[in-house]
Specification:
This protein is 42% helix and 5% strand. By secondary structure, the protein is mainly alpha-helical.
């Protein structure tokens, strides 16, 4: 699960735990994410839609081979992929 935090909030393990518990309480324990990754921004199209397939590729450690021409900012995808490599 990718999460962007509002200004004034600090991404940390405590917040990740609370978010996981919130999902478990609101939806059910089966929906609790295995991993929560904090990001400064998410890959969006110019119209503001989140490009979920790109997030799936980043989470799986794959290089995105699909069309990224509608991406608002290519740097977001590069940063997410670099953060994934730093974690490993």
């Amino acid at each position: 699960m990718f999460v962007t935090v509002k200004p004034g909030h600090t991404p940390n393990n405590d917040l990740a735990g609370r978010l996981g518990e919130h999902v478990a309480n609101e939806i059910g324990k089966f929906a609790r994410p295995d991993q929560i990754r904090f990001a400064d921004a998410l890959p969006k199209t110019r119209s503001g839609k989140i490009m979920r397939r790109l997030l799936k590729d980043v989470a799986a450690g794959r290089t995105s081979t699909g069309d990224t021409s509608t991406l608002e900012d290519l740097n977001v995808l590069t940063k997410l992929a670099a953060d994934k490599q730093d974690e490993e």
